[in-house]
Design brief:
- The chain is mainly beta.
- It contains no helices and 11 strands.
- Strands 2, 4, 5, 6, 9, 10 and 11 form a 7-stranded mixed β-sheet that branches. Strands 1-3-8-7 form a 4-stranded antiparallel β-sheet, with no helix packed on it.
- Strand 5 and strand 6 form a beta hairpin.
Length: about 120
């Protein structure tokens, strides 16, 4: 059974760093496109970062480019999101998602975690 659980979210001050983790069960993260999305109150869920299967590269939203880094920890079967120089507009619930099909271009699947809250500022 596929399961994703996000963790690491908390309240921080602008300029601080944070690392989110997505623990995966039921599949191997290395063979699927994996993403981080976020959703702020009253807004649509948006794609923040994409990690293609294997070593096929990454893609980021313009708003986080140069500040966020998505990566895999193969030994733990987790996907990480390292966030630097956080801004108040980064405040949101962060979710990870798995692609529908292994070794294919990313299309969102129904496999979402419950999310983890990141709050930047007061």
């Amino acid at each position: 059974q596929v399961r994703l659980v996000e963790s690491g979210g908390k309240s921080v001050q602008p300029g601080e760093s944070l690392r989110l983790s997505c623990a995966a069960e039921g599949f191997t993260v290395d063979v699927y496109g994996m993403t981080w999305h976020r959703q702020a109150p009253g807004q649509e869920r948006e794609l923040v970062a994409l990690l293609n299967p294997g070593d096929r590269g990454t893609r980021y939203a313009d708003s986080v480019k140069g500040r966020f880094t998505i990566s895999r920890e193969r030994a733990d079967n987790t996907v990480l999101l390292q966030m630097e120089n956080l801004r108040p507009e980064d405040t949101a619930v962060y979710f990870c998602n798995r692609a529908q099909t292994a070794w294919a271009n990313y299309q969102p699947s129904a496999h979402w975690g419950p999310g983890t809250q990141v709050t930047v500022g007061t």
